[in-house]
Amino acid sequence: MQIRYNLPAASTTTFNMSGRGKGGKAKGKSKTRSSRAGLQFPVGRIHRLLRKGNYAERVGAGAPVYLAAVMEYLAAEVLELAGNAARDNKKTRIIPRHPAAGHPK
């Protein structure tokens, strides 16, 4: 538990009342697990869905990060092939036919 006092000298002081340590670091801006892993796909959401989906009794901390990375890689591959197929057809927008047309022969 932290107690915050506004002192008159325009300074704010925070006292840590947990009884452990010497105060510790102040809370900074929160960082998402996706940004920590350098991913665009939502690690937190994937973790929640893995827990809710009755896939296993317990879900490790690294499992959703790995799954998000695999899903992001697959999405990037499909989008790259679809983009190449769209460019070959002189289109600037990907349509549902483009991913099927973009498969390597």
From TrEMBL:
<dbReference type="GO" id="GO:0046982">
    <property type="term" value="F:protein heterodimerization activity"/>
</dbReference>
<comment type="subunit">
    <text>The nucleosome is a histone octamer containing two molecules each of H2A, H2B, H3 and H4 assembled in one H3-H4 heterotetramer and two H2A-H2B heterodimers. The octamer wraps approximately 147 bp of DNA.</text>
</comment>
<keyword id="KW-0158">Chromosome</keyword>
<keyword id="KW-0539">Nucleus</keyword>
<keyword id="KW-0238">DNA-binding</keyword>
<comment type="similarity">
    <text>Belongs to the histone H2A family.</text>
</comment>
<feature type="domain" description="Core Histone H2A/H2B/H3">
    <location>
        <begin position="25"/>
        <end position="98"/>
    </location>
</feature>
<dbReference type="Pfam" id="PF00125">
    <property type="entry name" value="Histone"/>
</dbReference>
<dbReference type="InterPro" id="IPR002119">
    <property type="entry name" value="Histone_H2A"/>
</dbReference>
<dbReference type="InterPro" id="IPR032458">
    <property type="entry name" value="Histone_H2A_CS"/>
</dbReference>
<dbReference type="InterPro" id="IPR009072">
    <property type="entry name" value="Histone-fold"/>
</dbReference>
<dbReference type="GO" id="GO:0030527">
    <property type="term" value="F:structural constituent of chromatin"/>
</dbReference>
<comment type="function">
    <text>Core component of nucleosome. Nucleosomes wrap and compact DNA into chromatin, limiting DNA accessibility to the cellular machineries which require DNA as a template. Histones thereby play a central role in transcription regulation, DNA repair, DNA replication and chromosomal stability. DNA accessibility is regulated via a complex set of post-translational modifications of histones, also called histone code, and nucleosome remodeling.</text>
</comment>
<feature type="region of interest" description="Disordered">
    <location>
        <begin position="1"/>
        <end position="38"/>
    </location>
</feature>
<dbReference type="GO" id="GO:0000786">
    <property type="term" value="C:nucleosome"/>
</dbReference>
<protein>
    <recommendedName>
        <fullName>Histone H2A</fullName>
    </recommendedName>
</protein>
<keyword id="KW-0544">Nucleosome core</keyword>
<feature type="compositionally biased region" description="Basic residues">
    <location>
        <begin position="22"/>
        <end position="34"/>
    </location>
</feature>
<dbReference type="GO" id="GO:0005634">
    <property type="term" value="C:nucleus"/>
</dbReference>
<dbReference type="InterPro" id="IPR007125">
    <property type="entry name" value="H2A/H2B/H3"/>
</dbReference>
<dbReference type="GO" id="GO:0003677">
    <property type="term" value="F:DNA binding"/>
</dbReference>
